[in-house]
Design brief:
Layout (H helix, E strand, L loop, with lengths): L4 H32 L6 H18 L4 H25 L9 H23 L15 E4 L2 E4 H23 L1 H18 L4 H23 L9 H16 L4 H21 L6 H13 L10
Antiparallel strand pairs: 1-2
Length: about 290
């Protein structure tokens, strides 16, 4: 098969765009996993809810550029508030339980959220058009670069830097890192660890909702879109190193690029390429690419 440089460059761009979505969703999962020690299976459901909410909000405000940006802001915030209710009402009572129980509990929540989405939005596909400001493409060195893909390429680094600043330079970030290592000691100095965990959980779920809102103009919004993303997100988190945000970025980069290049190299089996990459990485580095926090 003859692969041109232009086709390769375009597929790399597609892979980087997918990497942005994968990283944003995976970083939220990794944050919750690293601090709260919760393997949050219903993180994918929150991603799906974020996409449906983005569709609803954008349509309510006319579906234009302003509607899209309002959806991009309000949908993740709504997802974060939903997650706060779930955390305060249910999860906060289970932090001391075994990881397997937490896994099964969050899986149960995923099933409940799937039915709730069906009740609210039905089982039909939804689609959200790319906002007018991001329609069309730029031409760089003779290559067409879709405006929305360029936007996603800008959002990814901003989210990564924001997470780094949050975890390393803010008070809540430093407290959360300390609580991840020794929550009893943090509580002993008078800090309400329960609300620190609630805040971290909200931030992680906000990122899941943000990923859903960003992906809404790129694909059909439907029930079941949570299944694929949660599998991919967990694989990325494991490959990068459990709880390591930068590992999630590196894992998302590998996963996204191998997926897009696989489409170019061997379309019939493109879906296999990223999973082969995961197997190779974990064979060579069983604990992940970067240091795990577990």
């Amino acid at each position: 098969m003859h692969i041109t440089l232009t086709a390769l460059a375009q597929q790399i761009l597609v892979g980087l765009s997918k990497t942005t979505i994968l990283f944003i969703v995976s970083s939220g999962l990794s944050l919750v996993l690293g601090v709260l020690r919760i393997p949050n299976v219903f993180h994918g459901s929150l991603y799906m809810v974020g996409a449906f909410l983005a569709f609803t909000i954008a349509k309510a405000f006319g579906g234009g550029t302003a509607g899209f940006f309002l959806a991009l802001l309000l949908a993740p915030v709504a997802v974060a508030l939903i997650s706060l209710v779930a955390e305060r009402a249910l999860l906060c009572h289970l932090y001391e339980r075994e990881h397997m129980m937490l896994l099964l509990f969050t899986f149960s929540l995923a099933l409940v959220f799937g039915d709730l989405v069906k009740l609210v939005w039905g089982s039909e596909y939804r689609s959200l058009s790319v906002p007018p400001v991001f329609q069309g493409s730029f031409t760089v060195i003779g290559l067409p670069l879709p405006r929305y893909s360029v936007f996603l390429l800008a959002v990814g680094p901003l989210v990564a830097l924001g997470l780094w600043f949050l975890t390393n330079k803010t008070k809540i970030g430093k407290i959360a890192r300390a609580a991840a290592v020794h929550r009893e000691m943090v509580g002993a100095v008078g800090i309400n660890v329960s609300w620190v965990f609630a805040s971290v959980f909200m931030i992680g779920c906000f990122l899941g909702g943000l990923g859903g809102a960003l992906v809404a103009p790129m694909q059909n919004i439907s029930q079941g879109m949570d299944h694929t993303i949660i599998i991919e997100a967990f694989l990325i988190v494991i490959m990068g190193g459990l709880g390591n945000i930068w590992g999630a970025l590196l894992g998302a980069l590998i996963f996204g690029l191998t997926d897009s290049i696989g489409v170019l190299v061997w379309p019939q089996f493109a879906i296999v390429f990223p999973y082969v990459a995961v197997i190779v990485v974990l064979t060579l580095r069983p604990s992940g690419l970067l240091k795990a926090t577990w």
